Amino acid sequence: MPNEIRITSPATVANVACGFDVLGFCLDKVGDEMVIRKTAKKGISITKIEGYNLPLNVNENVAGISALAAYNVLKPNCGFEIEIYKKVKPGSGIGSSSSSAAGSVFGINALLDRPLSKSDLVKFAMQGEYYASKSEHADNIAPCIYGGFTLVKSVDPLKILELPTPDDLFAVIIHPQIEIKTSEARALLPLNVPLYSAIKQSANLGSLVHALHTSNYQLISESLNDLLIEPLRKKLIPNYNEVKEAALKNGALGCSISGSGPSVFALCKGNDSASSVKKAVSQIYSRTAINFDIFISKINTEGIKIVE
Questions:
Q1: Across-strand partners of 108?
Q2: What pLDDT is recorded for position 29?
Q3: Global pTM?
Q4: Which of 86, 100, 117, 158 is deepest in the core (most CB within 10 A)?
Q5: Short-list 168, 245, 230, CA closest to 15
Q6: Whole-number Å distance between alpha carbons of 275 and 116
Q7: Catalytic one among 8, 150, 165, 182?
Q8: Considering 8, 12, 33, 129, which one is annotated as catalytic?
Q9: SS3 at position 86
């Protein structure tokens, strides 16, 4: 076994409109790079972070917290150093904390000849995610580790379902350069919702799962509606209604908030449709003073991978 590996840990989209806290998918254009190496000295240390100003203290960094959780259970006869080359911007809404949290446990597991299952990795990475968001959820972590679309059936006990990805499905990701903290976005959410809305939301989630299994793009489009979360959170995102309208008008199957925002995703059938959506949405933010990033991504069905 090698003593050092380099990995890419991808960004993800969580909630996917109708699947709050349970549904997510993996992206292939953006991801953290991490180097994990064995050391003779026991314990976990983070020795380098590039890209964003994040703490090196393992007890204050999601990658360190997740790594410690796995390390304390595995009790290996070695230690680990972690270098983080942060490419997923914190607070962007595309799984920045989960990318780091999942990457550290994946790397340690690989260097120990994989004693942990993917489900185990999710469980440990969730401890880092909890530190970041103050909520125990796995809808970003699961697709990062498993790849593709995943459904979190439950967190206690943890059960992750892998869903199929239609071949011609593309995502457009629009990231206005503002920061929304997950913990603050969650504070907007009500403890109770109308029964009618809950029923409609359940129907949308069920039909979306069926649509993914059958590659039914029309049904995907009909299912990507969020009656519960989007109406409350969209006010945090500048020009959100205009962006969504433009995306749908230019061929998107659906458009909603990625995670807690501010990133917005649009799912499209085919690269040509995705390119049209990208152009239309770019024009909206180009007329404002808001800096933004935008890119097209296939759905990443592999998840975290080792860089050769």
A1: none
A2: 81
A3: 0.94
A4: 100
A5: 230
A6: 40
A7: 182
A8: 129
A9: coil
